[in-house]
Automatic annotation (TrEMBL):
EC annotation from Swiss-Prot or TrEMBL: 2.4.99.24
Signal peptide residues on this chain, from the entry's feature table: none
Protein name, per record: lipopolysaccharide heptosyltransferase II
InterPro entries reported for this sequence: Glyco_trans_9, LPS_LOS_Heptosyltrfase, RfaF
Origin species: Pelovirga terrestris
Amino acid sequence: MKVLSINNRHIPELKKILVRVNNWIGDAVMNTPALGAIRESYPDAEIVVVANPLVSPLFLSHPYCDRVIIYDKKNVDRGISGFVRFVVRLRRERFDAAILFQKAIEAALMTFLAGIRVRIGYLTDHRGFLLSHGVELTEDIKKQHHTLHFISLLRSCEITGGDGRQLLNVTDNEKAWAQRTLKEASWVVINPGAAYGSAKRWLPHRFAQVADELSNRFGFLIMLIGGPGEIEIGQEIEETCHAKLTNFVGKTTVREMMALISACRLMVTNDSGPMHVAAALGVPIVAIFGSTDHTTTFPAGVAHKIVRKDFPCAPCLLRQCPIDHRCMIAIEVEDVLSSVDQLINDENVDFGRQD
């Protein structure tokens, strides 16, 4: 087992490691390459992911962690009393180290109060005094793809390894369920939402036009996916689209969504959590970017095409556009379809079923 080295001081072997992952689905998926490096460096340690209820299903049946502890601050762990109870729970676990991918002060305070001796994280949110090993989040690191943020954190502690790939696991039973649900057909999944905010969302009626063209030109069957907050977007597309489509928006669990995506040949999507899920499952992607920075959050590790338009105000990184949504309005249906054509005609891209 690798010996952890911090500031040239060697830490005895770690037998039990807490990893606090990020709170958004896309960010949590981008944690997985670093999680893989921890697994490779400490193959005999128990690796326990702490996650909120939204992202915790991503890490069920995952090869990089042994179990998941859910931190539900909106319900059972709500308020000061809930936080204290959760800290007591962590203290009883007797972790050797905590690695904090989440950059908030809460994660550092939680592990400090839990008595975890080694606490590794970025020096963000004024939390440096709570960390045993704080790492500066430099401008150079900020410019890297987000998957590299967490790998850079580990390298500062001489934790190396892993293959750098995002990884999610769909079980055989989940794959069988998706195949029974979808039958044997060629499916494209369209993800028209983005939980972060409306600035990341392309126009629903244009998604409907793309769906029609994918059906007419290529004979694809179309499915829509999305969360409970995106039901109206799914309904608008369903009502506008002429092609037959299956609307799963707001109707699946996270694990079911993963299984459905894994059975598809292609995803057309906004920059979003499901986009990163598809990337981790090896599904080719056409990704539409507006307010967000495609250089730091593109779908890593998978064949993809980015569709975006250059504007002085983009990327603004805002949740809602304060002007006229120009970066998204400027993207035409043919821009997206052209990217689909390029992927389909690329002989290096595998469009077989993701089994």
